[in-house]
Amino acid sequence: MKEINVRDAREQLSRILKEVERGEEVCILRWGRPVARVVGPAAEPPGFRSRADLRESLPATREGTVDTVRALRDSERY
Q1: Domain count, the chain
Q2: Is residue 70 assigned to a domain?
Q3: pLDDT at 62 over 70
Q4: CA–CA distances in Å: residue 71 to residues 5, 59, 61, 63
Q5: Which phi and psi angles does 29 have, rounded to 5°?
Q6: CATH no. for residue 6?
Q7: pLDDT digits (tens, 9 = 90+) for 16-44
Q8: Minimal CA–CA distance to 31: which of 5, 10, 11, 12?
């Protein structure tokens, strides 16, 4: 990993970004201590599951939604 101080990083940002595009990592130092690490972007985040897949994975309910809500409401009330 290449190390560079803040002042040089400001002056050479384009060059640093080109290096990162090539897969290198750059550590930015302030007063000789690391304060930041410049790396390429992470892999694409996984997409959301489709609602149809989610519904299929849930177990079937035995009672209707209205009955469930009423039971929950009544148990909270008393």
Answers
A1: 1
A2: no
A3: yes
A4: 64, 19, 14, 11
A5: -110, 145
A6: 3.40.1620.10
A7: 999 999 999 999 999 999 999 999 988 77
A8: 5
* Phi, psi at 26, each rounded to 5°: -125, 130
Place of tokens 């177990």: 59
**Residue 60 maps to a domain:** no
**Residue range of the domain that includes 18:** 2-38
pLDDT at res. 7: 93
What span, in angstroms and rounded, lies between the C-alpha atoms of 30 and 7?
9
Longest dimension (CA), the chain: 69
Indicate whether 12 belongs to any domain.
yes
Q: Is the pLDDT of residue 46 over 80?
A: no
